[in-house]
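Sample intake sheet
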Amino acid sequence: MKTSDLSLCAIFAGCVAMAACSQATELSRLHYTPNVDIVSGRGVSPRSYSVMYSFGNLSDGNSPMARLLDVGGTFYGTTTGGGAYGRGTVFSLTTAGIEKVLHSFGSGTDGIDPQAGLVNVRGTLYGTTTGGGAYGRGTVFRIATNAAEKVLHSFGSGTDGTVPVSGLRYVGGTLYGTTLLGGAHDLGTVFSLTTGGTENVLHSFSGQPDGTYPAARLIDVGGTLYGTTQNGGAYDAGTVFSLTTGGTENVLHSFSGQPDGVYPSAELTDVGGTFYGTTQYGGTGYCGRSIGAGTVFSITPGGTEKVLYSFCSVNNSTDGCCPVSGLIDVGGTLYGTTEYGGTGYCISEPGCGTVFSLTTAGIEKVLHRFGSGTDGSRPFAGLINVRRALYGTTYEGGAHGGGTVFSITTGGTENMLR
């Protein structure tokens, strides 16, 4: 199996079981710090996109799986492949489509194969790699826009966790994150890390009932962390959990498959005290998958869960299938992506992915169906809202086949970023 195939495999719940016995040096995607537009609730205007870019041209990086980060009008992100050594990059991109590789992974113990996005802490960017480092099991790194990359922590030296596939959350001077594997039971961890590099395992997952294989970025609500696990729980179909910064974990919901969803891989979104998220499979839809085509769900901090929408609910793949990314809230409407569904075929799968909107009442609308040309395909990452436009990435497609950065309005006008 190729390295890139292993990387992709790890974010899919269907492949999680093999991850524990494979080379755990790759795996998942990110989510980001909400920007001012989302926090203020300003809606997205039906104005056209402004920037374009296609990956895969020489050493600029390829196959992005992570959500973008907007810092003062410049986008920052990661690619899982490409760069000078073929093991991924950190890049910047202007709204005029000018891309710059800030760091190419793979030159030593600096980490390899980053699949999560970045977090900005006072002008310094922090992120994770799924492999590499001193022990070959992943890293947390930092990089400034005008400085070299530095590894803050290398995973794999004991029970500290391995293979961090999710991005970091910065809360009160400390970084928090998850690892897909490792910990006391090799089923994943939640960890804290100071910006100076001191790491501490807050919780080691054990399977049932507390969950296994956390692949999503955490959210912070009033000093309590909330997240999801892909597997584990009462039915081994994933969980939503809460965790105090002192390490006390509580399972809010165990997914059971159908109709409430299977394998949540994405971070939650807090909208007015209710959390919203996605499951990769499950629900009442079909699209050729006996375990369902995925859902959008809501859940209260007290654990009351409700399915808002089941993809492919009419045995039709054009509305999207298999969401692996989280949602964003813009003016009371949720926006997200699905890896498959829509129209056409990508790697013998039905459809190349979609961008969709969903009201909190469960009314879904497809804004764009990928795969019509060089517009990109298979969007793993969620969206960001910057100055009245939505921006995202696709893992494949584009002019060079290595993925794209795209912008889209709520009216559905999409264009890749170069």
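Comment: The first helix runs from residue 3 to 11. Residues 1-51 have pLDDT under 50 and may be disordered.
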